[in-house]
Amino acid sequence: MTYAVSEIRSAGKPRRKRLSHAAIEPWLYLSPAIILLVVVLLVPLVIGISYSFRKFSAFKSEYVGLGQYQAMLSDQVLGQALVNTLWWTVASLFFQFFLGLGLALLLDKSFRGRKVVQALVFLPWAVPSFLSGLTWAWLFNPIIGPLPRWLFALGLKAEPTNVLSDPSTAMWGPIVANIWFGIPFFAITLLAALKSIPSELHEAAAIDGASPWQRFTKVTLPFLAPTIAITVMLRTIWIATFADLIFVMTEGGPAGSTNTVPVYIYVSAFKSLDKGYASAVAVLLLVLLIAYAIALIGIRRTLVRHV
Predict the structure, then answer these.
(1) Cβ neighbour number for residue 304 with a 10 Å cutoff
(2) Contacts of 251 (CB under 8 A, 6+ apart)
(3) In angstroms, what CA-CA distances link 186 with 122, 124, 212, 299?
(4) Cα 33 to chain center, whole Å?
(5) How far apart (Å, rounded) are the C-alpha atoms in residues 175 and 46?
(6) pLDDT tens digits for 35-69?
(7) What is the residue-wise DSSP string for 54-101?
């Protein structure tokens, strides 16, 4: 009896050893990626958050605790930047999504010259954002660009002036440029989602007498809903943290009318040389975007359960 028990125990040891190796082995394969993520993402994040508790001057820094965050409560420029960021993000996202969805529905159909249209639709995504900003700034220039004259000819402006120089219209310049730049993202992702919808569902709905609008709302849209939720979340985060186009086209002006939070962070850190305050504002933006992402992920899970 004792021999049998000892034999069972000795057989159990290699089994436990194999299980421990099986549990560790995947982490060994993932270790290079994990180390890279820690070095590239986590370490800069921790350093940036630590900067937000310090006050930097030309030659030294001192710990100020929550002083930088308290200063944000009375910062009117930051308040206006938050409003501008909301306007910039919502307007850009609205037109990008609906125009991208329309192009995806168009490209899902078979027609002559579809490959050429696909290449033209996806072209803006391949253009560097810096070059896109310069190009659109030239287009809005009344001396060398055609857009001011077109707006004047259509009666939308009293004279062919630069849209970017008027505080009441300046934000629309970067928004239009960002719409052109971001449409391909929605077109590509939504087109891939459309291709995954079984054609039998549309055929069955058509046989049952459903109209094209009913097939879109009852068949296509429910299948697209999870993809729409995740793409809207990603694009919102990218737009809200996107400063390239605005800085190239207006540098946050005129009179702060296009000054978004990312632009304000850049100016505070590299022009005002106040890295501590810039880090505090960046942490605020991070918290707002995390809260938004958590809410949208919850909505997406609800949509997935209902599909």
Answers:
(1) 11
(2) 263
(3) 10, 12, 22, 19
(4) 23
(5) 32
(6) 888 888 888 888 888 989 988 876 778 888 888 89
(7) EEE-SS-EEE-TTHHHHHHHT-HHHHHHHHHHHHHHHHHHHHHHHHHH
Contact 30, 42 (CB under 8 A): no
Confidence band of 86 (pLDDT split at 50, 70, 90) = very high
For the chain, the maximum distance between any two Cα atoms, rounded to a whole number of angstroms, is 103
Tell me the CA distances in angstroms from 128 to 97, 135, 178, 248, 294, one per residue in order. 21, 11, 12, 12, 30
As given in the structure block, the two tokens for residue 188 are 């590509």
C-alpha–C-alpha distance, residues 105 and 242, integer Å: 27
Angle at 175 between CA 170 and CA 181, to 5 degrees: 140
Q: Is the pLDDT of residue 306 over 70?
A: no
- Say what the pTM is: 0.84
**Residue 173 in contact with residue 249, Cβ under 8 Å?**
yes
| Token reading at 256 | 């702060």
Measure the CA–CA gap between 122 and 49, rounded to whole angstroms.
37
